[in-house]
Amino acid sequence: GMRSRDRHIQVSPRHGGKECPVQDREEVEPCNTQACSAPECVDGQWSEWTEWSICSETCGGGSTFRTRKVAVMASDCGSPAAGKDREMMFCNAEVSCEPEVDCVFSDWDEWSD
């Protein structure tokens, strides 16, 4: 910005005395030349992850996922939230799709002699 100050003639010139220069009645100079306070830099932040979804397959392998959203948006000078908004993993790969088969004995053979 700018600031100014004035001064007034205390004694007017008389009897051929020298006039006060008009330009010397006011002074103007810059002030507060430092940059305005910089905006606060806010980094982006994620929300908590959701629960994992139900596996897409009950046997033989499927996938499950979870998501999250940006909870705090980054300001112009901040960093965006790091990472992905979705995670996926495989599930139920160890579960066989074939039905369980229990061991079954045959009938007894005849007794030996």
Automatic annotation (TrEMBL):
Pfam families: TSP_1. InterPro entries: Compl_asym_regulator (IPR052065), TSP1_rpt (IPR000884), TSP1_rpt_sf (IPR036383). Gene3D superfamilies: Thrombospondin type-1 (TSP1) repeat. Keywords: Disulfide bond, Repeat. SMART domains: TSP1. The keyword Repeat applies. This is Spondin-like TSP1 domain-containing protein. It comes from Alexandrium andersonii.
